[in-house]
Structure formats: C-alpha cells, structure tokens
Amino acid sequence: MGSDTVQDTTDNTTHNADTMTDQTHHSQTGEEERHFEFRLEDDADPEEVEHIYGYVPGGYHPVALGDRLGDGGRFRVVHKLGFGGYATVWLCHDGVGKKWRAVKIMAAKASTPECADLRALDLFAGMDPDVLAANHIQLALDTFWLDGPNGRHLCFVLPLLGPKLTHVFQYYGHIPELIKDICFRLVEALEFIHSRGLCHGDFRTDNILFRLADGVDEWDEDAMMELLEQPRLVRVERVDGSERGDAEPGVPAYLVERADIVYGEGACSSDIAVIDFGVSYRNMQHPAEKGTGIPLPYAAPEEVFEQGQLLGFPTDIWALGVTIAKLRCGFAPFADEEYDDFLAGLGKMECVMGPIPNPLRTVWKEWNGVFVNCQDENGETRDDRSWEDEAVFATVNAKEQARVEQSRRREGRPGNYLHYRMHHFGMMSIDQGEADTMAAQAASDPRRLPPYDWRRPPLEYGEKIQYTMDKAEIDQMFNLFSMMFRWNPEQRATLDQIANHEWFGGRSRRRPEAPLPLSQLATSNNSKRARSPSPGGPGKKPKCNAEEEINRQDDTTAAARREDGTGGLGLGGPAAAASYSYVARIMTGVRVGAGWMTKKLTWCVGTIGKVVSGIFECLRWRPWRLSRRAAK
C-alpha cells in the first residue's frame, strides 16, 4: 500500500526487535510451557501481530479495544498502530486534549531507567516541544506507569504520526522538488541534533516518519476509522481447543492487527519527524560497543570495520547520504536492504571511493585471511599464493572495477559505479496519469503529500512509470555524494556544505540557522565566509567542486571534530545539553560585543589623549605667543 506501519516506533526501540521475545522464550521454562497452551487462530497473519509468546510475566501488557489508560482513564484505546520485541503501540483518543495520540506500552522487563525513550528525553531535557518539532525531532510528550498481570509497564504518549519514508521514491520520485524539500528537512534535523553535541547513530528511513496534515489529529472517530479501516482481531485459542477461563489474565483474548496510514490517503504533510534516539551518543564520546548496530546499507566504513573510536558526526553524514540516495534515486548505494552482503557492500564502496585504505585495509586482511584478489587475469586461482603478499594484496575487486570503468568510458558512459547506476531508470508504483495529477498537486500545495488511489488493483509492469533523473541533476547528485562518501571520516562534507550544495537549489538561504555547539562556531564562521559572493559578480555562487571544498575545510573541520562537543568546557548531563545552543549564542554575543566595545574604547581613549595633549601644547606655547605680540 506504499507505506509501513503508522507508528511502528517499537520496531526502532532496538535493532533486534524480537530479542525480548526470544530471550523470554528460551530463558523461562515454566512460562514457555504455559504459552504452548495458546495459539493464534488458523488464518492469522503472523506478520501483522506481535508474538503470542511475548505475553509472559515481564513481557507485554494485555490490551483490549476500549481499555482506558493513564491517570483517570484519560486515553481510550481505539486501534493498534505497531509492535516490536519490547513494546506495543496503540491509537488512543485523549479525553482531555481531545486529540488522537499514540501510546507506547513498554514490556515490563524493558521498563527501566536505561529505556531508550527515557534516554532520548534526557538528551533533549528542557527543550520546548515546539522547538523540537520545528527542527523535525519527535520525542514523547508525556509518560505514565501502568500496572498489569505481567508486571509494571512504562508508557509514553506521542503525537500521532504518519508512515515511514521507506517507500517514498516508488510514489513520489517523479517530483524532484518535493523530494529535495524532504531531504533538506533531513539536513536541518541532523544539523539540530549535532548542534546539541549529539550523534543520532541510527539515521535511516525507518527512523523518519511523515507528520500528519494539520487537523488530522482532531478528526472524529468515524473519520479516523475510515482512514485506518476497522480493527481486525485475531483470536487467541487454547491448543487443546478447550474454553478459556479467567486464570490467564496475562494473555489477551485476541490480538489486533496493526493499522496503516498510507501515503496516498492525503492525510500526510511533507514535514518529517526523526525518531529513535536509542543508540545516540555524544560526539567523540563513543558508544561502549564497537558500533551502533545500524543496518549495513547505512553503515559507514568505520561502522563496518568496528572502529568505534572513529564514530562521530561524519558517521551520521554517511547515513544521511544513503538516506538521500534512497529517497531520490530509489536505492541504497552500497548494500541491498533485504540481503545484507558484507563482501558486496565493501566492493561497492570501492567502486565509488577507490581501494580500501589503511588502517581499514589491514583490518579487512586480518578478518578475511587475505582471500581477496587471489585470482589472476583469467579468473583462475593463483597457485603461487603471491596474492598473500602485502604488495600484491589490494582490495575486494579494485582491479576488475578499474577494467569496467575503462570500458564504460570508452563507450562514452560514466565510469564510476554510482554515477553509472544513477543513469538507470527506477520502477515506480504509479501510472502516468496519476503521476501528472500528483505533480500538479505538489506544485500547488508543497506542504502536503499528494494523494493517489492506493485501493485500485496493483498495476501491471507495463503500466508503471520508469523514471530517470535528467543528466544535470545526476551530475549534481554525484558531486554531492562524492563529498559525503569518503573512507576517511574527517574528509566528509560538513552539514553546512551539504545544505549549501547546488543540488538543494538555494534552500539554505530560506532558513534560520541552527544553533551550534561552541566547538563548531569557528567552523561555521569559516563556512559562512566561504559563501560570500564570488569575484564573478555580486550574489553569484561559485560552482561547487567536491575536491576543492573538502580540501579547503579539512583542517578546520578536523580540529572541530576532535572536540568533545562541549567546546572543552566539560559540560555534561541533561541540563547542560538543554542549554547548549543558548550558551553558544550568549558566548558569541559576549565575544562580539566585547570586541566591538574594546575597539571603540581604544579609539575614544586615543582621541581624548590627543585632545588633552593638544590642550597642553597650547598652554605651553601661549606665553611665548603673548610675549611676541607685546613686542610688536
């Protein structure tokens, strides 16, 4: 239907969404035997409901439609929005605020101070929710506790959000300005996150949702059910077929299939909300693990090679680049999302960026026993094992790729793998008539996702649009990607460079600047000077050149990124995090004001000194002048 689960934030609570269910199943023999007494009815779709084995002490809270949650039964349960290994999410109507909300009920065992959602609230403590929303960040609005037969559960109240960005290209890839708007909001969101001294750590389409259009969260229940369709229930039965008694309150009588809000309903705005800060960390204060566990398609080389000490802002920049490629080009450049192939992913990285450099090459060699490039020119395995020698050892497929690139260039085609692939068409999920109508609607109302008839029968292959970007845009995007995808994290483009890249068409000039941490103020000022009008004429922006831009700012960027994100002031904790941007602005103002006052004071003192000196000179020579006048 063109979208994923509406509020499937629970799948993003952890990278191993089913871990809790699996751990419960294998570690609690008594409960395991108890749960084999229950099963779902025969025609149930296991992909649309949570695992029944999760309803154990320490697991899910059993919820029925019509239940009331929160203080005074404020939130009435109407539908299910999503589930994961650690939580279920329910559509509820807020009897006080009179709005639709998503209530996320954590499993009892996951309801701890280390819960990712609580951690996210700490990271942005003290921030006005409206400020977060304006910067495309979404956190819980409120929390409460719920006691039930399976334990005590922490609950989070969130606004009702739309679908993930996962399938945007299939429906909106033919509207480049809409995609650019969405991608620019991603840059703004990441810029705001980094301005707090934080790295997201899991920046990808699954963790970015569309917001609903204005007023949708205030619809009446009939309108909301028309949008989501009526809940479909899956009956929970005893394995032996006997009637259920009242002795199993921890197991619900039925499960509810999750609801979908699809792109085509016309209920979504083009604004976005970044969620899931469960693996976020402060810049240069690396995670305890060697990486964050971000899926391979979005993983930077330092993630792939488990070089945790290299993680930081540039690691998010890499993930941003992959996300932009997914939204605009319809593919992840380095790995397939369904078939994560470590070897193929590295091979594609080499196709784009050249051979793996040291120290990553050394790590690769140790991991894989030097089995790469062990073939000769004819594809036969080398008998002399000379390929084990460091001088012969190169990379996964660098020699073959060089041959392919040369062949492509001889044919007048782009040599680089990524540049070449962007010239291929992408298969969309709409026909030409729908595409034309949607493009016109997007032009007239760019703040709303254009609707389409998602209820119609699926299109045949020949009816679908085969969309290809024009050559000028491909060249711009390749230039942008060449700045973002670099083996060395310190050589990747900054967010300021990305926001001002020509592919975004001047969007950066139409936005307020995000506050920066103290450690990045110098880098920001350098970037602003770089955007001054070029000698070619007033207001003319020089053409972006990836190599020149990167090399010009390497020194300042590297220096800034060696900071700990607090400007060396030792700031830390939620309170300090909440005051980052304000401290930066105040300190900048103080420095600028002090500098201005010092210059003015120096000028005034100098002027006064000259005046006083002149007066003394006049007094000194006055008698001499009078004596001369008397003599005359």
UniProtKB/TrEMBL annotation:
Which InterPro entries does the UniProt record give? Answer: CLK_kinases, Kinase-like_dom_sf, Prot_kinase_dom, Protein_kinase_ATP_BS, Tyr_kinase_AS
This protein's record includes keyword Iron-sulfur: no
Q: Which GO terms describe its biological process?
A: regulation of RNA splicing
Q: What is its EC number?
A: 2.7.11.1
Keyword ATP-binding attributed: yes
Q: Where is the composition biased (Low complexity)?
A: 8-22
* Comp. bias intervals (Basic and acidic residues): 23-35, 544-565
Q: Which reaction does it catalyse?
A: L-threonyl-[protein] + ATP = O-phospho-L-threonyl-[protein] + ADP + H(+); L-seryl-[protein] + ATP = O-phospho-L-seryl-[protein] + ADP + H(+)
Q: What class of enzyme is it?
A: transferase
Which controlled-vocabulary keywords does the entry list?
Answer: ATP-binding, Kinase, Nucleotide-binding, Serine/threonine-protein kinase, Transferase
* Classification via Pfam families: Pkinase
Disordered: region residues: 1-35, 506-570
Q: Name one GO cellular component term.
A: nucleus
List ligand-binding residues for ATP.
Answer: K109
Task: Give one GO molecular function term.
Answer: protein serine/threonine kinase activity
| Limits of the Protein kinase domain | 75-504
This chain's function reads: Component of the EKC/KEOPS complex that is required for the formation of a threonylcarbamoyl group on adenosine at position 37 (t(6)A37) in tRNAs that read codons beginning with adenine. The complex is probably involved in the transfer of the threonylcarbamoyl moiety of threonylcarbamoyl-AMP (TC-AMP) to the N6 group of A37. BUD32 has ATPase activity in the context of the EKC/KEOPS complex and likely plays a supporting role to the catalytic subunit KAE1. The EKC/KEOPS complex also promotes both telomere uncapping and telomere elongation.
> What do we know about how this protein assembles, alone or with others?
Component of the EKC/KEOPS complex composed of at least BUD32, CGI121, GON7, KAE1 and PCC1; the whole complex dimerizes.
- Name of the molecule in the record: EKC/KEOPS complex subunit BUD32
**Natural source organism:** Staphylotrichum longicolle
